[in-house]
């Protein structure tokens, strides 16, 4: 979301664990919501990505990191 707001290409690396089996998982996501998973076989299970929808007509700070 930050990359889209700033018109920058950002890449985020997420180190987390599977909620189902507790195995470590390493996900990389970029500003265009392209993603990859480091663990073999994990790419067949698509991570859930949340992109907030912003109502810009009613947008008021402080939110979205204080108007970026």
Description of the structure:
By secondary structure, this protein is an alpha+beta fold. The chain is 13% helix and 25% strand. It is built from two helices and three strands, in the order H-E-E-E-H. The protein has helices at 2-6, 64-67, and strands spanning 11-17, 24-30, 35-37. A three-stranded antiparallel β-sheet has the order 1-2-3, with no helix packed on it. A hairpin with a 4-residue loop joins strand 2 (24-30) and strand 3. The chain is elongated, with a radius of gyration of 15 Å.
Features:
three-stranded antiparallel beta sheet; about 70 residues; elongated; 3 strands; 2 helices; alpha+beta
In short:
With 68 residues, the chain is of the alpha+beta class. It is 13% helix and 25% strand. It has helices at residues 2-6, 64-67; strands spanning 11-17, 24-30, 35-37.
Write the layout of secondary structure elements.
Elements: H1 2-6, E1 11-17, E2 24-30, E3 35-37, H2 64-67
Antiparallel strand pairs: 1-2, 2-3
Measured on Cα atoms, how large is the radius of gyration? 15 Å
Secondary-structure-based class equals alpha+beta
How many β-strand runs?
3
User: What percent of residues adopt helix (DSSP H or I)?
Assistant: 10-25%
Number of domains: 1
Distance between the termini: 10 Å
Mean of residue pLDDT values: 75
Silhouette: elongated
- How are strands sequenced across the largest beta sheet? 1-2-3
Uncertain residue ranges = none
